[in-house]
Amino acid sequence: MSRYLPRCVDDELDELLQALPAVALEGPKAVGKTESALRRARTVYRLDDPGQRALAQADPGRLVGADRPILFDEWQRVPEVWDVVRRAVDDDATPGQFLLTGSAAPTTPPTHSGAGRIVTLRMRPLTLQERGVGSPSVSLRTLLEGRRPELAGTTEVSLTDYAAETVASGFPGMRDLPGRALRAQLDGYLSRIVDRDFEELGHPLRKPQTLRRWLTAYAAATATTATFETIRDAATGGQGDKPAKSTTLPYRDILERLWIVDEVPAWLPTRSHFSQLSQPPKHHLADPALAARLLGVGSDALLQGQDGRPQIPRDGTLLGHLFESLVTLGVRTFAQGAEARVHHLRTKHARQEVDLIVARADQRIVAIEVKLGRTVTDDDTRTLRWLQQRLGDDLLDAVVVNTGPDAYRRKDGIGVVPAALLGP
């Protein structure tokens, strides 16, 4: 990377390292984990390097004797490192000693979970704020306080800009690449998943093209709750030679281990606010640019309403769903910093749906609808008003994130926040 882009997770990482002995930073390849960790380490072991990996495998215990903080980069290549760090922490719990970064869950898990010794922290691709797109004036953390603050701010970020950011990628090393070079990098990233990563995780592919088709169908299902049977069917255009379930079932598991599939789980509140809720997750890839590339659509095609192939039943345009994925990426990053979790709400038969539910530990929530449009009407806020009636004080705030220019509160109390103005 030519320059370091400050990350929201930096503050979390510093806060944890001031109080805890070991932190593991997890996320997909090229997301920036190593760059963030290197700024805090005195000793670095790059375990994706064959020479350093061989030394670590020969005597992992000697690694912890170096100057601390010690960074174990790609620790999953030598899973014994996790147990070595855990034991070192048992002997000395001084804060800020160890950093571990990993871009996949190990094939052979450590003998101990690390609970109470090693804390994990998720890093996702760059949010709009981290990319320098807009100047956030609305804080998700403040919305979670439940005071319903006045909302203000103006942005010149347009629909064209959002479409461009959707396909531009949130992987830091790809940000400055021109169009063709960026597309080549994204193609290479996807090819590595198919051609190398699956085999490295112990699942060699007999027909790599089958995974590629499945990934493309999954991309088409972005921000939907399509069943995996629907995705499997779409992978072959509904033809009779679709892959067996036994072939495609491992795909999701391994892609989750690679942090490429990043589904939003359904919200199932502990209190009896609802009699019937649907439980399928909403589908998202780590970066909406990966989905756009798999579907072969650029920003111009998205603005023209093109959907790519294959098609999955959805409400609205592909751009609308990829824009929701871009907003979801930001909301999840900001929510993590506020120690909140992100879900979606969908009642059975899809009578009521809310795109994003940001839940505090006490199950009080902020509800977010995502709209690809400049204006917000009463119809756009109908579900949020219904939710207010059901939840009462448990609904801390409700907003519509859109592509308009201004942040404000409507007369019904629901906030309107342009995506470029939402921040941590």
Quick overview of this protein structure:
By secondary structure, this protein is α/β, with parallel strands linked by helices. It has helices at 8-17, 33-38, 50-58, 80-91, 128-131, 140-143, 159-168, 179-200, 208-220, 228-234, 245-257, 288-295, 299-303, 318-337, 382-391, and strands spanning 22-26, 43-46, 70-73, 98-102, 118-122, 138-139, 341-346, 353-359, 365-370, 395-402, 408-409, 415-418, 422-423.
Strand order, sheet with most strands: 7-8-9-10-12-11
Poorly predicted regions: none
Biggest sheet record? 6 strands, mixed
Strand content: 5-15%
Q: What is the helix content? A: 25-40%
Distance between the termini: 24 Å
Question: How do the SSEs run, as a string of H and E?
Answer: HEHEHEHEEHEHHHHHHHHHEEEHEEEE
- Characterize the overall form: globular
Count of discrete structural domains: 2
Counted by DSSP, the helix tally is 15
Give the beta-strand count.
13
Quaternary structure of the protein: single chain
Structural class designation: alpha/beta
Q: Rg from C-alpha positions?
A: 22 Å
- Overall mean confidence score, pLDDT: 93
